[in-house]
Specification:
This protein has 219 residues and is of the alpha+beta class. The N terminus and C terminus are likely disordered. The two termini are 30 Å apart. It has one domain. 18% of the residues lie in helices and 41% in strands. Strands 1, 2, 3, 4, 5, 6, 7, 8, 9, 10, 11 and 12 form a 12-stranded mixed sheet that branches.
């Protein structure tokens, strides 16, 4: 189990993701609260397997770059408009627009857990070890709730809500990516994949804070 005495950096917000028939996968992090304040970042896996990180220059981009796997990064303005029913994210050449469904059976089940319990290390370990395999047929087998980042830091996810996208539109430099599709292969940004169905997940992400990991490592 993860030692609860460790210091953690917490990021509270929403992660949205979708894969497309074009072979592209987009995962957007819309963080309303973090050690860096509010910010938006986009992770883009292109059909050739190249992974790009897109976001404004500064500490948040350096932090994400240091903990996840990319071949390139693009410094560009990124922003989001988020509501219960819709999500619009833009960053550099990317644009993502989702209409989200209401809370389903999984969301109602997740809300039964007290919020203070959801991010507790032993509880996350139990959910990841015992409950997650049962949801693999729905969410996908690549989902993980705890693991190591690229830099070797521990990370865990407290999941608060899951919403399926009813409609999705995305474009690269104005060119539409077409219909959504199940991902042909893992994007490989981190130890966990996004659920295979397009949608949005409200989470609190906790990443272990250690002095040797705080500077941000470049490739």
């Amino acid at each position: 189990m993860i030692d609860s005495s460790r210091a953690w950096r917490r990021f509270d917000g929403l992660i949205a993701g979708a894969s497309f028939a074009s072979g592209d996968t987009i995962v957007a992090g819309c963080w309303r609260a973090s050690p860096f304040g509010a910010f938006v970042d986009l992770m883009w896996a292109r059909p050739d397997g190249t992974r790009l990180l897109i976001g404004p220059d500064g500490p948040p981009l350096e932090f994400v770059w240091s903990h996840y796997r990319f071949e390139e990064r693009v410094v560009a303005a990124a922003g989001a408009r988020v509501s219960d029913a819709r999500l619009r994210v833009t960053g550099g050449p990317l644009s993502l627009d989702m209409v989200l469904g209401g809370p389903g059976a999984l969301s109602r089940l997740l809300r039964l857990r007290p919020r203070i319990l959801r991010g507790w290390g032993p509880w996350v370990w139990m959910e990841d070890s015992l409950f997650r395999p049962a949801l693999a047929p729905v969410l996908g087998s690549g989902i993980r709730m705890r693991g190591l980042t690229r830099s070797g830091a521990f990370e865990r996810y407290a999941i608060h809500d899951v919403r399926v996208a009813l409609t999705v539109r995305a474009s690269v430099e104005g060119v539409d990516l077409g219909p959504v599709s199940r991902p042909a292969s893992p994007a490989g940004f981190g130890f966990s994949e996004f659920p295979r169905r397009a949608g949005a997940v409200r989470v609190t992400t906790s990443i272990e804070s250690r002095p040797e990991l705080s500077a941000g490592r470049t490739m």
